[in-house]
Amino acid sequence: DVVMTQSPLSLPVTLGQPASISCRSSQGLVYSDGNIYLNWFQQRPGQSPRRLIYKVSNRDSGVPDRFSGSGSGTDFTLKISRVEAEDVGVYYCMQGTHLWTFGPGTKVEIK
Amino acid sequence: QVQLVESGGGVVQPGGSLRLSCGASGFTFSHYGMHWGRQAPGKGLEWVAFIRHDGSNKYYVDSVKGRFTISRDNSRNTLYLQMNNLRAEDTAMYYCGKDAIEGAFDVWGQGTMVTVSS
Question: Is the minimum CB–CB distance between A96 and chain B shorter than 8 Å?
């Protein structure tokens, strides 16, 4: 089974400053079709999750361009270029190459 | 717009059963695979089950194999999760999610709460 880890698990940030979340998989995530099915989700307090990024680096419709995803192999990163108040919540990475597995989540809060 | 609405949650005793439903609208339901995920109170997200667009293949997380069954009725645009022999550790908010060619869970429902307690 693929295990997803994230760091840090808690991320206090200053408004307007950048933030970065790391996600690591226990196995490589390249699928037989050549794609890497690594997604990022945001869950604001009291809300359902929302997908932000699919296939490592593609933003979903309506996602602000301050969110970006990158990575390869087993190491992936979600970056927020300038944190806004509405970005508070928990961020999860999820792999969809070997069935599906979520990471433990990273809680982003304002300092 | 694309919408998923879960129902069927509630309080059930250990060993009991419950069937969750997820009604879909705004897209051609029969063309897409569908997922169930869950989130225990104060905990992270967990993928639970997946069914292909035509019901031909189903996959489950190990902890629910043999107890949960995912199914769908494409004529009713509805996804189901039959949960039997429920345990306290199944207590969670259950979400349905739409699959897409570029990846899973591009759309989520609002969730339905399942509490397993005596």
Answer: yes
Tokens read off for B37: 């995920």
Residue B106, token pair as written in the block: 């591009």
In this complex, is the C-beta atom of B105 within 8 Å of any C-beta atom belonging to chain A?
yes
Query: Which tokens sit at B91?
Result: 């207590």
Interchain contact A50–B (C-beta under 8 A): yes
What are the tens digits of pLDDT across the range A54-100? 999 999 999 999 999 999 999 999 999 999 999 999 999 999 999 99
> Rounded to an integer, what distance in angstroms lies between the CA atom of residue B79 and that of residue B87?
22
What is the Cβ-side half-sphere exposure of residue A56, based on CA atoms within 13 angstroms?
A: 17
> In the prediction, which pLDDT does B87 show?
98
Chain B interface includes A82 (CB < 8 A): no
User: In chain A, which residues have their Cβ closer than 8 Å to the Cβ of B104?
Assistant: 37, 39, 94, 96, 100
Give the tens place of pLDDT for each residue, A87-108. 999 999 999 999 999 999 999 9
Distance from CA of A14 to the nearest CA of B (A): 24
Residue B1 in tokens? 């717009």
Residue of B48, B105, B112, B113 to mutate for A, most A C-beta atoms under 10 A:
B105
**Is beta strand B112-116 parallel, antiparallel or unpaired with respect to B10-12?**
parallel
Q: Which residues pair with B50 in a beta bridge?
A: B35, B59
Residue A64 CB partners (closer than 8 Å, separation 6+): none
Residues in chain B: 118
